[in-house]
Specification:
Length: 331
């Protein structure tokens, strides 16, 4: 069968289509005919390589996979991340903390191929349009774990989402609203801010506006939760926006990973600083249930043939997109 494979890190040209042996499912595994694979920024990191983070090359990319089970003909979506399900941590349901936690297309082979073999425990139902389903699992799990699992968002709380129009941000708006929070976002362009409002945000500001608007929105109190994955560029502002006892949760550092905090602010204001990455398999199921009912929907900008993966990567890197890119099977 045909599959994309990264043999060495580099530019989009390292995304090569190769012929490999047909995968054969073992016990408790199924063969899935891949129909759609959503792209994430993770795909760019995996392709380029990251200092001091080895990826197991050669590697098949693709984390967000939707396809059809060979044995039953059912459409399925695949868990993007999973624990070993055997260790004590996994037995306590904290798959995200498992030492053997794996991300599809990052630490094990992904789904940018004609077919994949996966354990039955990695399957989720797919009751919505497959291209839309493929645009969500990884970023939805990330957003859900940040807001629900880590920051414990509650009804009536005020939540500020930095970069609200991003893949994670646009889903975080909906997760926060679903949990009864009031939501404000920052976004750089008018078009992005409009998009955030359409997704349910109560306020959408430029980064500059947010500095003063947060104060009037909260009657100078500050927000209960700030969700940030921008990194250095927004860190100072994110800390400043917090109320006493407020929580800053971060899952990324796109603009740089060095951050400072005045320890006096940290303890006097009794702030909570939380790191977050991926989430548990139970959280994925919970979040997926909200997708099934239509409470959460993705923003898909483009659906492209899978053979145009290199072009899609270039578009992703140019940041010209206003939503997710989903690759459609044509290998
Ligand atoms: Zn485990």
């Amino acid at each position: 069968m045909k599959t994309y494979r990264i043999d060495q890190h580099g530019g989009p040209e390292v995304l090569r289509i190769v012929d490999v042996e047909e995968p054969i499912p073992g016990p408790d595994e199924v063969l899935v005919n891949v129909t759609h694979v959503g792209l994430n920024h993770l795909d760019v990191w995996v392709r380029r390589g990251v200092d001091s983070h080895p990826f197991p090359l050669p590697l098949v990319p693709g984390s967000d996979v939707v396809g059809i089970r060979e044995d039953t003909g059912d459409r399925v979506a695949l868990h993007p991340g999973f624990g070993c399900l055997k260790c004590e941590i996994c037995k306590h349901g904290r798959h995200d903390l498992c030492r053997h936690y794996q991300i599809r297309g990052e630490s094990i082979n992904g789904g940018m191929a004609q077919r994949v073999v996966v354990p039955k425990t990695h399957l989720m139902p797919c009751p919505i349009e497959p291209a839309k389903a493929a645009a969500m699992p990884l970023s939805l799990l990330t957003a859900w774990h940040m807001l629900v699992g880590r920051a414990r968002v509650r009804p009536g709380q005020k939540v500020l989402i930095q970069a609200g129009a991003s893949g994670v941000g646009s889903l975080a708006i909906q997760v926060a609203k679903l949990h009864g929070a009031e939501v404000a976002v920052t976004a750089s362009t008018e078009r992005k801010r409009e998009r955030c409002m359409e997704l349910g945000a109560d306020h959408a500001w430029t980064y500059e506006e947010a500095k003063t608007e947060v104060r009037s929105w909260t009657q100078k109190r500050g927000v209960d939760i700030v969700m940030d994955h921008v990194g250095e560029a927004t860190w100072k502002q994110s800390v400043r926006a917090l109320a006493r006892g407020g929580t800053l949760v971060t899952c990324g550092a796109t603009t740089g990973h060095q951050a400072n905090i005045d320890l006096r602010v940290l303890f006097f204001k009794q702030l909570n600083l939380l790191g977050s990455t991926m989430g548990t398999m139970d959280e994925m199921q919970e979040a997926w249930a909200a997708v099934t009912t239509g409470a959460i929907r993705p923003v898909v900008d483009k659906i492209m043939p899978m053979t145009e993966l290199a072009k899609a990567h270039t578009m992703l890197e140019s940041r010209a997109l206003a939503g997710k890119v989903v690759m459609e099977q044509n290998l």
